[in-house]
Specification:
Layout lengths: L3 H9 L1 E2 L1 H11 L6 E4 L7 E2 L3 E2 L9 E2 L3 E4 L1 H4 L8 E9 L13 E5 L11 E4 L28 E4 L9 E2 L10 E3 L7 H9 L4 E5 L3 E7 L3 E2 L10 E2 L2 H12 L2 E8 L3 H11 L5 E5 L9 H6 L11 E7 L1 E2 L3 E7 L4 E6 L3 H19 L9 E6 L5 E2 L5 E9 L2 E4 L8 H5 L3 E5 L5 E2 L4 E6 L2
Parallel strand pairs: 1-19, 7-8, 14-17, 14-18, 15-16, 18-22, 20-25, 23-26
Antiparallel strand pairs: 2-13, 3-13, 4-12, 5-11, 6-8, 6-9, 7-10, 19-21, 21-22, 23-29, 24-28, 25-26, 25-27, 27-29
Length: 440
C-alpha cells in the first residue's frame, strides 16, 4: 500500500468517488476457497460448476395419490360404466419392491412412489371409489386403519392417457447436466438442489468476517442512560446490519473511547477474526479524531506494503475517508466518517462492494436506474462534489426524503434509494431525469 509520504500527499489530493472505489477494489482479493457442509455454505459463492451425478428424479414416479394402471384397462371408463380392477398391493415412497401390474390389475400408489412395472399411467384417487364400492372419494383411508385398501377391487371412473400423472426420470435434471455454475450464491433453493442430487459438501468462497467498530467518547450503548453531551451509538449497529445484508459474517465491537492507544490495541485484537475491518468516526480534521492518530503511522514500519491512507473525496456526504491494509495478513481496513448518513452512504459506496469482492462476486454494485425527480423545488448541490441524497423510488419516480444533512437518521430510515447529483451539476429541477442507486 502507500508509503507515509504518499499518505501525506493523499490528504491534500481530492479523490473522486470512482478513483477511491477503484483503489479499494484493486486491493481487495477474493477469499481462498474452502469445502463446506451444505448449511454452512449458505450465502457463499460457488467456485466451480456442479455437475449432476444422478438424474432427478432418479426414477419414474407418481405425481398424485391414486392407482397405477394400464391404459387399455381404463379406456372408456365412466361413472356409469366404471372400469373394475383388482388391487394387487400398495406402492409407497421409499418402497424397495413394487408389485407387478398385469392386465385388469391396479396398484394403489402414493405421491413420489416409483411407477411399478407393468403400469403405464396413474389415475388420481378422486377418479375412483377408493375400493369402497360406492361413488367417487376425496382421498384414501390411512393404511394403519384400513390395511385392506391395498387389496380387493377398485372402480375407476375416468380413462387415463399414457404417462398421465407420471413424473419422468430426469424431467428435472439429467445425469451429466450442469446443476449450478461457478459464481452462484447459495441460497435455500440452491442448497436444496445440491442436497437433492446427493452433494453433502461444496467448494465455495467463505462469507467474509467483517468487524465493525465505532469511535467516540460520547457514544453510549442502547438501553443505557444518556449523560450530558452523550448520544447513542447507532453507526455500529447500522453498519453491522449492512455488512450482514451484503453477505458477510459481521461482528460488532462496542464503541471505543477517544484514545489512540486504546483504539490501536482494540484493532490489533480484532485482526484474529477479521477479513475486513470497518471503523466509523475519527477521520476528519478535529483534535479528537483518533482514528487518524492511531492508524496514520501503522503498517509501514512493520509490514511492507501495509498502511492506512486518509483522503478527502469529492462527494457529499462522506468527504473524509480512510483506506488501507493492516497487520501481518494485510487485512483491508476502511475508515468511514462518523455522521450517521455519511457513514451509511460510505458503506454502500465503498464497503459493500469490497465485501462482495471478498466473496468472489463478479457484480459487486447495487443496481442503478434512471428516474424522474418528484420534488417541490430544485435540488441544490455544491460544485465539484458528487452528492448522494436519500429518496424513495416507485414507478419510475424518485422523491427526496429529508434534507442534505448528514445527521438525519430518521430520513435515512425511510429511504430506499440514493439520488445521485453529478459533480458538474449544482441544481436539479423537478421533472429532470436523475441517476438512482436502489438500496435493498
Amino acid at each position: 500500500m502507500s508509503s507515509a509520504a504518499t499518505r501525506a500527499t493523499g490528504q491534500d489530493h481530492l479523490w473522486s468517488v470512482d478513483d477511491h472505489l477503484e483503489d479499494i477494489l484493486a486491493t481487495v482479493r477474493p477469499l481462498e476457497p474452502i469445502e463446506l457442509q451444505l448449511l454452512d455454505a449458505q450465502g457463499c459463492v460457488l467456485v466451480e460448476d456442479v455437475t449432476v451425478p444422478v438424474s432427478l428424479p432418479p426414477f419414474d414416479n407418481s405425481s398424485m395419490d391414486g392407482y397405477a394402471v394400464r391404459v387399455a384397462d381404463v379406456a372408456g371408463a365412466s361413472e356409469e360404466y366404471p372400469a373394475v380392477l383388482t388391487v394387487v398391493g400398495d406402492v409407497a415412497a421409499g418402497q424397495a419392491e413394487q408389485p407387478y401390474v398385469g392386465p385388469g390389475q391396479a396398484a394403489r400408489i402414493m405421491t413420489g412412489a416409483p411407477l411399478p412395472p407393468g403400469a403405464e399411467a396413474v389415475v388420481p384417487v378422486e377418479w375412483t371409489d377408493g375400493g369402497l364400492g360406492e361413488g367417487p372419494v376425496s382421498g384414501m383411508r390411512a393404511r394403519s386403519t384400513a390395511p385392506e385398501g391395498a387389496s380387493g377391487q377398485v372402480q375407476v371412473h375416468r380413462p387415463a392417457q399414457a404417462r398421465a400423472h407420471v413424473r419422468a426420470k430426469g424431467s428435472d435434471v439429467k445425469a451429466g447436466d450442469r446443476a449450478l455454475e461457478a459464481g452462484t450464491i447459495l441460497g435455500p433453493p440452491q442448497i436444496g438442489l445440491l442436497a437433492a442430487i446427493g452433494r453433502g459438501t461444496v467448494r465455495v468462497r467463505p462469507r467474509p468476517r467483517v468487524v465493525v467498530m465505532s469511535t467516540g467518547s460520547e457514544l453510549v450503548q442502547p438501553d443505557e442512560e444518556l449523560g450530558t453531551g452523550q448520544i447513542y451509538d447507532s453507526n455500529s449497529f447500522a453498519l453491522c446490519a449492512a455488512a450482514r445484508d451484503a453477505g458477510a459474517i459481521a461482528y460488532r465491537v462496542g464503541a471505543v473511547a477517544d484514545d489512540a492507544e486504546t483504539l490501536r490495541s482494540t484493532i490489533e485484537d480484532q485482526l484474529i477474526r477479521a477479513d475486513m475491518l470497518v471503523t466509523t468516526g475519527g477521520v476528519s480534521v478535529g483534535a479528537y479524531d483518533v482514528v487518524k492518530e492511531a492508524l496514520s503511522s501503522v503498517g509501514d514500519e512493520d509490514e511492507a506494503g501495509s498502511g492506512i491512507e486518509f483522503r478527502k473525496l469529492a462527494m457529499q456526504p462522506g468527504k473524509p475517508q480512510g483506506f488501507g491494509t493492516i497487520g501481518p495478513d494485510h487485512t483491508p481496513l476502511l475508515a468511514l466518517p462518523g455522521n450517521p448518513v455519511s457513514s451509511y452512504v460510505s458503506f454502500e459506496l465503498f464497503v459493500r462492494p469490497a465485501i462482495r469482492a471478498l466473496m468472489g462476486l463478479k457484480d459487486v454494485h447495487r443496481p442503478t436506474t434512471r428516474a424522474t425527480l418528484n420534488a417541490d423545488k430544485a435540488l441544490t448541490s455544491p460544485a465539484g462534489r458528487r452528492q448522494f441524497l436519500r429518496g424513495t423510488y416507485a414507478d419510475g419516480e424518485v422523491t427526496p426524503v429529508g434534507g442534505a444533512g448528514s445527521h438525519l437518521v430518521a430520513a435515512l430510515a425511510h429511504a430506499d434509494a440514493l439520488i445521485v447529483v453529478p459533480e458538474d451539476d449544482t441544481s436539479v429541477e423537478p421533472g429532470a431525469e436523475v441517476e438512482v442507486v436502489l438500496l435493498g
